[in-house]
Amino acid sequence: MDARARHLLKSLIEQHINSGQPVGSRQLARDAGLAISPATVRNVIADLEDAGYVISPHTSAGRIPTPSGYRFFVDSLISVGPLSGASRRLLLQRIGAHLPDAEEVLHAATEALSQMTRMVGFIRVPKRATQTLRHVDFIALREREVLAIFVTDKGEVENRLIRVAEPLSAAALTQAANRFNASYGGRPLQEVIALLEEDLQQSRAEMDAILRNAMELGKEMLAADQERMLVEGELQLLDLPDLAASERLRELLSVVRQKRELVMLLDQSVLGSDVRLFIGGESGLAPLSDFTLISAPYQIDGELVGVIGVLGPMRMPYQDIIPLVDGTARLLGQALSQGEWLSS
Amino acid sequence: MDARARHLLKSLIEQHINSGQPVGSRQLARDAGLAISPATVRNVIADLEDAGYVISPHTSAGRIPTPSGYRFFVDSLISVGPLSGASRRLLLQRIGAHLPDAEEVLHAATEALSQMTRMVGFIRVPKRATQTLRHVDFIALREREVLAIFVTDKGEVENRLIRVAEPLSAAALTQAANRFNASYGGRPLQEVIALLEEDLQQSRAEMDAILRNAMELGKEMLAADQERMLVEGELQLLDLPDLAASERLRELLSVVRQKRELVMLLDQSVLGSDVRLFIGGESGLAPLSDFTLISAPYQIDGELVGVIGVLGPMRMPYQDIIPLVDGTARLLGQALSQGEWLSS
DNA sequence: CTTGGCACTCGCTGCGGTAGAGTGCCAAAA
DNA sequence: TTTTGGCACTCTACCGCAGCGAGTGCCAAG
User: For the whole model, what pTM was predicted?
Assistant: First the structure.
């Protein structure tokens, strides 16, 4: 493909991103800044259509980009700049406002990203598998009801109400918690579960219920990890004038709700260290085939732990969105890393 | 209004609830089970239109109920039976599966209600203002970062990461927590905040940061109380073939999101002890004017603490929905009350 | 290789005509 | 006085049709 064809393709896609309409040869010849006639443009565009980059919705309409066209566009036709100063400041402010609480920071970053891109934002939260058990508490709430609280070294807190066969005194519970912390504190969650399972055999009977439940709670924390994902701004999709409330949209929303498939997709992306795009059917998930998903992994203390991103129509301003996703991932990582956040 | 007019109105509304279409005189004369001609029906219906119970979308269409029509229908034309055995069993199972954890039970009940009614479910969760502080924990997480955990007597857990000026030893933190529990444990949250504010003056300097933050955390718990509401199944609204994705729908969803107005509305309803309906504009909230909201308060240990309900189109099967909302509220209350849940 | 010309295609819009549903009114019947 | 059949009227939904405008593909000339 020669330079002129590339230029025309770029111009065509940019115009379509702006207008949402099919782009015709006359308009393209005028706006592309090349001194060529519409007829020449038609010849070139016909080749681009053969190559699969654009398609005509019907005979007498202009052309719109195909998923391959968008792919070529982002890979070879545009260069994404750094995050604009204004966006950066806005992100800094919105993320920084919620420090030091990790959970809130994750939430704030996703919400900010969703609002700034006007698309659905999502985030795969840090894995618990790597976290260690920091502290356990057993608190008698009512007769025979004990509240168990797990705290990890990353500050995640999970709690569970447990029914026990007979009342336990506050002192007994404190003692139990102390023993528990002494034995299992500081170990990776995975290991704690395994040890608990082992120890369950020889422990005293009245502690059984609590140990067993603590084990279940730990297991659930790890299991729930498989699908821990926050989604923000699903409503944004309803604002798309294009497909507003079509059948596709419903499918998409239900995929977003179920999360499972999406999580698997994102977990692939955590491997690379760069922004990643799934345009149209590239993800392999049918309901996403009319949409584009952009994700970027983020790292805490130098370790890749999660992915953040957005989901929107294929027709989106990639030049603006990509830096936003990338920048949010970086700032989020800094915010959650030890001592890196000095209002940068 | 005579018996025949009532019967016709009832029949008209029932038919419209089933079909969604305007109901004409011929169809009504046929299906109402009365031996009268369409012409007679027309005379009667014309009176009902004058009275404001039905309206004609246009000259040559049949009639559809107005909000007043629905109001009269539920108040005077139908009698709502008890919850069906099957529904009751399903609810028992879905709610019971999550005992004894209150948070999960609230969630499960709302989700079940939403799915069984195929509408949006919501719940106003129990007020914290009445809860007492059960236990506090301070846990050193990293250098100069302390995790504060609040537990109330109802088993609600709230946590917050706190930055302190200089590192505190684990022993110091334990001691602080012990003192905290001794001084404030067992008191209503409201009171704890007040006492903290007082004590903050004369406490030792290094504890200031923690006390101050604990106070903030407590205040936030009470403040957030103003809008604590769970919403389930917003997606259900997209399934309505009627207004699917109209402008109204968008408005409605944004009201549901913002919650504030809705919460105020629900808090009015917690006063009565019975099912309450807001049909069309009865709530005074403009975005709800095409919809019906049905709510029922629930009580824990004999005390009215919250409201659960559904939101859907005015055209809904009231005879089925009302018992479902009522029944869910009752079962939920039993589940959360002391010792009342014996698989009933 | 580029360009202007031209026939052709196709979607969109507006128009008129028709069928169908349902109403309101009236005069006759009960 | 109430009910009923009849009838004219109204309005929507649907259909086919023509005109338009946009855009294409092809071709022959530059």
Answer: 0.86
